[in-house]
Amino acid sequence: MPTEPVAERTRSAYSALDEAFVQAGLDGHAHFLNWGYEPIAGLADGAVPGLVQPGANEACERLVAELVGPVSLDGLRVADIGCGRGGALDVVLRRFRPLSAIGLDLSADNIAGARRLLSGRRVRLQVADACALPLGEASQDVVLNLESSGAYPDMGAFLQHVRRVLAPGGLFLHGDLWPSELVGPFIETMEEMGFVLESLRDVTRQVCRARDRMPAGLMSRLAGSRGAAEVEDYFAAPGSAMYDCLDRGAIAYLLCRWRRGEDPGGSVDTGPLERRAARIDALLGEARASLAERADWFPFGGPRRGADVNILAFPHAVAGASAFKNWQARFPRDWQVSPVQLPGREGRIAEPPFTSLSAAVEALLPKVRPYRDTPLVLLGWSLGSKIAFELAHRLEQEGVCQPLLVVAGVCPGPHQPLPDLRSFFGEDGMETRLRLLGGTPENILSSGEMLSALQTTMEGDTAMAASYRSEAVIRAPMLALSATGDELVSKEAVESWRPRTAGGFTHRRLEGGHFMARDDAPTVAGVVKEAVAARLRQGSRQAEVA
After folding, report:
1. Which pLDDT value is given to residue 292?
2. pLDDT confidence of residue 429
3. What number is the average pLDDT over the span 10-39?
4. Of 163, 277, 281, 489, which has the most beta carbons under 10 Å away?
């Protein structure tokens, strides 16, 4: 049974959340506290038709429907433990005719919200502790427990109560977070307790997809006095430490269906399950530490395992990630465009730039490896093309993954030198060169110290370009782009990429100049989107044939 301080902290947290809903004007609509479920093409769903209504709570209702799956609750005694604000019971009572329905929650604020939602329904709602369930032995046919048990200080006690209150053959429908390394011990402990596993689904990607589609601005409306980071973790908002743990696979979201089996005939060690809360806290701490570094490399959003495709974009020499900052809006919502920020520019201007392209790629590899199972596009512009190519080569060489597509924009092949930007701009000073390149804020152009730092960056990029040569041939297909008005790189120089791929080569000639990725982003992004979509379709066809 939880100590009173633990229980009080949980009640206080829910009370603060209830207050935040009221202040945000959401109290009458916030019937669910779960994170939702969004179907993903190619991944199996478990919900039966008819449980979900279209509307603002559709994703949350869908998660309830996925938990229930093919089980009919008609004529059964159903208890929802950790019922929150009553949303799951509302879904159940709309679709089924259970013999009885009970909702229990530690928070009086949650129970009050559930009573408002379920007014007039045949349901009993009660403030109660999940680790000391006030229900009779064998009194329930089905126990629901969705996204609640993470707050329980004694998971073993809760599960023993679930087994006690379930009738022989009764079902325990459990959906919640589990650190990946504890999934095995969780299953083993449940089986030792006499539960029989009927279904287990990892729906982490579908839950993350639902989080990706959260209404814009919702977190800022709910943050209030509790602080944005705490609220974002509670709701697994994109960019939060919790979302990062889910996306990287450190924490799994499981939907399980257990049937009460034979009595185990002895005590069971539930100790492994008690490490769950502490391990989740530790993983969140690690994620918070790594997110700061990740934001340095991907200031406009990093790659995601749950994306349909990840596009890493590498800008031209001296330029920063902001060269591609508006590109995300030009691609489908479930594609992630991640402009890469190298040291020595924009937010990283104080860091020494790379002078070796190989060193830059070596630093990038750990940032990319965790997303190897998601289709990957490497897009480069001018010098960025050579970084993209070498990164693709290393990923293939190490057996990490084969990129879906490598895009080389206005750049000679890797066996040829890049033109010297200093000669292109003549004897003009650094400020004039940067104005011609574009994209540098006026406060930097007017600062001698900042210009000196960018002089160092240009020298580093020039050294990267001058020292890199490669005759490698990658397996990934390539799209090369040349520009009709490019005074730096000729059509023939761009064509020289052709022998550098064994996966198919396409050369598109566009109307514009060397910096058209910046000056005419819609055109360039449109060509890239078309090429990536074609590759995705081709991959789908190959999968169907296989």
Report:
1. 84
2. 61
3. 63
4. 163
Cα 522 to chain centroid distance, Å, stands at 26
Contact 84, 110 (CB under 8 A): yes
Q: What are phi and psi of 313, to 5 degrees?
A: -115, 125
Q: Kindly report the number of other CB atoms within 10 A of residue 425's CB atom.
A: 15
Q: Sort residue 467 into left (φ over 0), alpha (ψ -120 to 50) or beta.
A: alpha
Distance CA 30, CA 19 (A): 12
Q: Calculate mean pLDDT across residues 203-217.
A: 87
pLDDT, residue 19, reads: 55
Quick one: pLDDT band at residue 462, thresholds 50, 70, 90?
confident
Tokens 């979302």: give the residue.
243
DSSP string, 152-195: -S-HHHHHHHHHHHEEEEEEEEEEEEEEGGGHHHHHHHHHHTTE
CA dihedral 421, 422, 423, 424 (to 10 degrees): 50
Exposed, middle or buried, 251 (CB in 10 Å: 0-12/13-18/19+)?
Answer: buried
CA neighbours within 13 Å on the CB side: how many for 146? 29
Structure tokens at 386: 């050579």
Return the SS3 of 198.
strand
Percent over 90 (pLDDT), the chain: 66
Cα(7)–Cα(99) distance, integer angstroms: 31
**What's the DSSP call for residue 474?**
B
Q: Number of helices and strands (H, E) in the chain?
A: 21, 13
Query: What DSSP assignment string belongs to 256-315?
Result: EEEEE-S--SS----HHHHTHHHHHHHHHHHHHHHHHHHHHH-TT----TTSSEEEEEE-
> Mean pLDDT over residues 280-297, rounded?
91
d(CA 264, CA 319): 65
55-61, long-range: CB within 8 Å, 24+ apart, which pairs?
A: 56/29, 57/29, 57/31, 57/32, 57/87, 59/210, 59/213, 60/31, 60/32, 60/34, 60/35, 60/36, 60/87, 61/32, 61/87, 61/91
The answer to whether 126 touches 104, Cβ cutoff 8 Å, is: yes
| C-alpha–C-alpha distance, residues 109 and 95, integer Å | 26
Is residue 420 within a helix (H) or strand (E), and if so which, with residue range? Answer: none
**Per-residue pLDDT at 252 exceeds 50:** yes
Give 118's contacts (C-beta < 8 A, 6+ positions apart). Answer: 86, 89, 90, 93, 103, 125
Confidence band, pLDDT 50/70/90 cuts, at residue 39: very high
**Alpha-carbon distances of 255 from 67, 95, 147, 297, 397, rounded to whole Å:** 6, 20, 10, 34, 37
Phi then psi for 326, rounded to 5 degrees? Answer: -100, 10
412 with 494: CB under 8 angstroms? yes
Q: How confident is the model over 359-370, as pLDDT tens digits?
A: 999 999 999 998
Task: Average the pLDDT over each of 53-67, 161-175, 218-232, 328-342 and give the range with the smallest value.
Answer: 218-232
pTM: 0.81
Of 29-38, 277-286, 499-508, 517-526, give the lowest mean pLDDT range: 29-38
